[in-house]
Amino acid sequence: MADKPSRALVLYGDGLARFVDSSNTHIHSLASVASCGFLSLPHAPPETEKERIVREFSHLLDASEAYSIASGFNAKGSEHQISTLAQRFMGLKAALVTDSSTVSSFGKLIGLDVLHLSEICQKSDSLPSDTAASEFLRLLGFEGGKCLDVSLYDSVFVHIGVDNMAMLDSLIGSIMKMAHSGSEIAPRLHLSLVLGYGSVTDKDVSVLLSRLHKKVLTPRLQGLSRVRATPCEVKRHVMMFAQWQDGVTRKDLVDTLSFEALKKLSGNLVIPADRFIHEVAFKLWKAPKYGA
User: Fold this and answer.
1) Among 47, 91, 179, 219, which is 20 to 30 Å from 32 by CA?
2) Record's superkingdom (predicted)?
3) Which residues contact 261 (CB under 8 A, 6 or more apart)?
């Protein structure tokens, strides 16, 4: 456990999991030093692509109830019952970086300050990934390789669409370079990479579940004890994730970010997607340990 609260940068590659290959060297390098696993998503009703994008993002923030209210699935007037992340997680200050208008609207609904990814990447003539990495770290109070006493945000969520795999890989390389082991930043930065599969067909679901069937474990609600998962527990399909914080997160045996490597070698295995934000908030001292 760190002696000070962490600051979290969450990179969410929506629909990018199926496109990871050997050329994405920075993604694999992150996985090789991180704690990895799967996030399981519940079954989804028939929906449009825009609805899927927002629904899956809402699960990562344990805000599916807010999504249901915003989508009109709840009684009229219930929109006043929507809680912000700050209300739910001890005043958590959080920003959302995205170029998706639908994700932006939902982020604002749950109290996130919204910034545009394309505008950040265009701020200087240097490499877009270096510019973006510096800006994300600055928002978290990391400047010039130093950790400032105060920061604009406790957490920054970056939503990256399906056409930006090369940018995401380069961005991770820039962040890892700036937050290298031994720097002031590394012990305080909690970096998460989440890769979703995007829109999936029934055939995709069948393949994913068959590959996980009787091969994975999922945590109980207490501590780190685990039980075997069934396709019913995985429910719909999964996301892959990797989390790294120098000297804080436990490295597992994963050396590449792939489905098979995570299935065989990951330390976290499978957890419900809506528990993800609770694990991150715990590192920020904004929530009790999930399951404790």
Assistant:
1) 219
2) Eukaryota
3) 31, 36, 254, 255
